Amino acid sequence: MESLSVALVSLASVVLVLRQTDATVPLAASLGLVVYVVGRVVLKLGKALIYPFYISKLRHLPGPKDNQFLVGQGIRLLKAAGPNDLYLEWVRKWPDAPFIRHLSFGNSEVLLVNSLDAAREVLQTKAYSFVKPSFFVKLVGEIVGIGILFSVGDQHRQLRRITAGPLSKPSVRKMLPIFKDKARELSVEFDTAIGEDKNGVVEVEALMNRTAFKVISTALLSRDISEFRSSSSPLSFEECYRAVLVPPLLGKLITFLNPFIPLRWLPIEANRAFIRANTALRGMLTELVEERVQQVQQDKKSGQSDEKADTKDFLTKLIEANLAEKKGVSDQMLVDLIIQGVSAGHETTAGALTWTVYALIKYPDMQKRLREEILAAQHKQPDLDAATIDSLPYLNNIINESLRVWSPSLMAPWEVGEDVVIAGVLIPKGTTVTTIPAMVHLNPAIWGADVDVFNPDRWDSTTGAAANPFASESFINGPRTCPGRALALLEIKTVLVEMMSNFSLEAVDVDVGRSSGRTLLACEPCRKRKSKCDGEKPQCGSCRSHELACHYEPARTTRRQKYWDRDYVQALEDQVRLLSASLEQSKESSSSQSASPASQPSPSEPKQLPYGPKMLKALHDFGSVKWADVTGRDGLPMLAGPGRFSFYSNTLLPTFEDGTKPSPPPKEVMSKETFLLEVASNLSLKQHLKAHFLDNINPYYKFIDPVWLNFSDLFPHNDTALQFLYSALFAAAAYSSPVATREIADAFMTYAEGLVQQCYLEHLCLPVLQGLMIIAWQKHVMLDAAKGHLYHYMAIGLSNHLKIRDLPAQERTVNDVATIKTFWSLFFLDRISTPKLGASTAIPWDPDNITPYIDTVSPELVDVSALSFDHHCQLYNIQQRYIDVMYSPNFQQRPAAEKQAIFAKANNEMLALRKKIDRRLYISRNVKPDRVQVVFWITYHSILINLYRPVLNPKDPGMVHNIPTAFRSSTASAMAITRLLKSLQASDEIKHLPPFIIYHVFRAALVHGLNLIAAEEAGGQRMSSGNFWSCFRVLGELSGIWKELSEGTMPFVLMATRGWGFQEEVGGTEEEDEEEDDYEAGINDLLGELEGEVV
């Protein structure tokens, strides 16, 4: 656009000159050229000298200001001791900024991604708003082509689809024999080195490069292509590959400058060698692709394709996937994919292997521990299969830590393709945004103070920010993630297993240091001069060059201050209460067996409790869960439901239809045709709703694996089942999105409901079941109980077809994993969809016989979200099996000893679960917890309240002795819930909570109401009142997102506690308050309305 503007100005000057009578064409053309050149120069100077400092919308972002003239920080970055040194210095200077801005050559602006939230938006949520920078395309594109690296939009999605199957974990595992074969060749080279030289010295980097090249070429093309040649060139593949990717110095200089100043046309030998090698390389790969295409087509016609399924290489599977597309990509695009696969897979894998070996050499104890793990596994299974190799925990830890400390990729530059808002920052089109893995991997705010220490054990319990998937950027993330991740990891693991099981490695010179040039301990002269120290001993390089005496001070051990984490103390107190309760119950049970009938508790015993009549009534209401006398403004019960479980009821079903009343007019919803036309063209809306669903709904319910949403941008041009799933998902997201309107949500929901019958009868598959679950969930949240249960039980009915198999991990297919995950999502929905207690599930599967959710997640992909969901399922399974029994209608009629035993059993199960909670879910005061962690602990304490609640009934003489202990424990759990909610309020995250949290807040508020009634002293009364209103505030905040559910809960809480005498206590407390904010005034108005309107 800028060049066009300058061209138009120059053209205008030519026209003006020609309009003069004495003007000539040469004169006008010369003037136009001068104007164009001057305009371009002025424009460039303006962009370099004025725009970044006075006009740019990004100039206020934090970043270094000590720029050099016209090159910004470019020269400093090139001259730094390590490639990441300056970046890490900036990270420590601006740890909380989402982006760090610096200027590069020509004072061009570069934004460095500096937070996990910003990384998530750049790499996943808004990934397709970015393209590769034009200079990078010119720099690398002439070597590796377009391929998956530089493709955008639909073309990139198509290439992802084509490569997904060939590079999936099951396909890669079939390549294990190739990996083992090349790893054994490496062992032979080690043996040869030992035989030729008693010292057995080898150059690791060269060996790893050669091994990685052999592995990747054989896995991709079924041949070692080092000596492969085409019919049109005498050059071998390796010669071409080296000439293109590792040119001589002049060739490197031309390659670097060519994107800015076209130099490839110069008739010099460096250019001729590059063009000759590049042409030959592409020629031989084109021949190979054409030959393989013909072979695949021939095998397909002859029916031999399936017979060779286990022996197919990547290229064959790639061609098959391409032929399966309606409109496949060209052979030239396949050539690009091969070149990118060989170059990226070879270089990065070799680098990762080299640095991992370096770490094992530097830390012999770790090498020994890894060898012991591998040998122990080989003792059980001499020829390890891929699943066993993948499951070795310490091997995984070693590799993960190596990739963290020495990431094989230095940076990933992107260019904004359209104006976009990331982490609250408006980034203009054309801006370069770069992700630097080291800025994440070596960030103390994410990985802790020991970020520079190589510590594989940190991966056993990553918590907080370190557990975020975007805290590991070795393979990038999101749609642009490295498609060969599974191949690279299995290759690295296989080579390490071969090396560690046969050789012990030592270094000739272990003090290589990290490539970044950082050292953990500087010598005293360097420390005082504030100069960089390489940490070498006995004399560092700086002191040696300055001829200074070098000495190191002994490391000062700092005593770590011990503190007691509040949640940890609370956990210990909970355990003491549970054990005490169990002990008390066993004593009471044994004594009651020998007591005479006259000594048994009588109905009058509740009067002996230290509570007044209002508290006894409140305890009875709360413990018996009979809310029939809590009526709404219409005088009808606010809750409905059989037995001791209930749910909100907005409408009552009449005996006969009243024909005299006119039917309410139907909601106005846009026509199906209009809806489909608008949705098909509104890509930004679909991407927003998908991101909102994945960020704020799916982490809690695990309705769907995110990979199933790869084609959601194509909606409504999907098959029927996916149309149903995506429309249900978009509807659910639109209802709670701050951007989408209720009309949009209704339109999506209407479209989804219109497909229900067809999908249920004709398209039995997992997406249909998932769609039904999402619709049922949404209807329950909107208190549309009739439709909620309709779709709910349709989903349960469809679950009869799940065919869940009990298989070892290594035998589970992708379908098995998806089926198990879907079951747990359905189970969780069934348990939390309404606030019911004591209602048995209708799901025809026993959760105890189903593989746990967490076992279906790959160890390297386990995060706090997966752990939280798995533990949620465990909690609700315990509630269903052991706690809901106490809410059944016949529980009160059982003998006291039997009730006591049921209560004790439930106590013990909750205690056992508490001991098994994964340490990664614990909340530390040093690291900001993830929302899913907080939600889990709120659920945990809410279920504890559910456990104690049935024994709080003072009219149950057999259980009355439990009331003081149970009430104290319920209060402790309600306090814990309130404290957790306050922590979320402080970080403004309440609005992102799931709707089932409302039921937990509701129960905590009722417990605080009980305390308010019980406490007659002003201090205790004020504390309980404050906690109650804190819960009520949260319900008010949630009403902005989950309107119907919150607004159904809030009046009920007020009316229930009002019946206990709540208003009198509140009045006494409020008289002491000097100030009253608008919120509390609004609460009083609501109380007044309810009091005036209730019959």
From TrEMBL:
Residue span, Zn(2)-C6 fungal-type domain: 522-552
GO biological process, alphabetically ordered: DNA-templated transcription
Pfam families the UniProt entry points to: Fungal_trans (PF04082), p450 (PF00067), Zn_clus (PF00172)
Keyword field: Heme, Iron, Metal-binding, Nucleus, Signal
Cofactor: heme
InterPro entries: Cyt_P450, Cyt_P450_E_grp-I, Cyt_P450_sf, Cytochrome_P450_monoxygenase, XnlR_reg_dom, Zn2-C6_fun-type_DNA-bd_sf, Zn2Cys6_DnaBD
Signal peptide region: 1-23
Coiled-coil positions: none
Entry keyword Heme: yes
GO MF term (any one): DNA-binding transcription factor activity, RNA polymerase II-specific
Positions of the UniProt region annotated as Disordered: 582-612
PROSITE patterns listed in its UniProt record: ZN2_CY6_FUNGAL_1, ZN2_CY6_FUNGAL_2
Annotated binding of heme, by residue: C482
Low complexity composition-biased segments: 582-602
UniProt family annotation: Belongs to the cytochrome P450 family.
Name of the molecule in the record: Zn(2)-C6 fungal-type domain-containing protein
Organism: Trichoderma semiorbis
